[in-house]
Specification:
alpha+beta
Length: 158
């Protein structure tokens, strides 16, 4: 079943009120590592973030459509299922920070910038085109010439 999109009128009105999260709508989330450090460049570090996405899905909070984990940030295309974006991102950032610190035998190291960017997919946007744009990020960043040479991405339509 395709995701609902943010109604144009509701989107414009709600932006004036601040951040809004609507269940069963699709969102693109971008979160950046503290000081843009490349904290996610290793296999285990990137898998920790991917596991965080899967955990949120397993808890019924989200449904992942696509993602890419870059060395210093991630892009996550999801359908919000329950709760709000703030609580979803707080949970994801908290659990991944704890795991990443544990993995590196550290405690309390700041992993994520406090803020995140979110974009509600509107009715006039093609969700699959957004997903393609997201997963092509490593090519545009010059990390690889072919996406098959980059491991930290997925799209539900494959």
């Amino acid at each position: 079943m395709p995701a609902k999109t943010m109604p144009e009128r509701a989107h414009a009105v709600n932006l004036r009120k601040g951040r809004v999260a609507i269940a069963d709508c699709a969102y693109v989330i971008t979160a950046v590592c503290h000081q843009r450090l490349a904290l996610l460049s290793g296999l285990y570090e990137a898998r920790c973030v991917v596991n965080g996405f899967r955990s949120c899905d397993d808890m019924g909070l989200s449904q992942t459509l696509a993602f890419v984990v870059m060395p210093d940030h991630f892009h996550w295309l999801l359908i919000l299922k329950e709760g709000g974006l703030d609580s979803l991102l707080r949970r994801l950032k908290s659990t991944t920070a704890i795991e990443l610190n544990k993995m590196n035998q550290q405690t309390g190291r700041q992993i994520w910038q406090k803020a995140y960017y979110d974009h509600a997919i509107r009715a006039d946007e093609d969700v699959k085109a957004v997903a393609r744009y997201i997963v092509a990020n490593p090519i545009r960043a010059g990390l690889v010439k072919n996406l098959s040479n980059f491991s930290f991405w997925d799209v539900c339509w494959l």
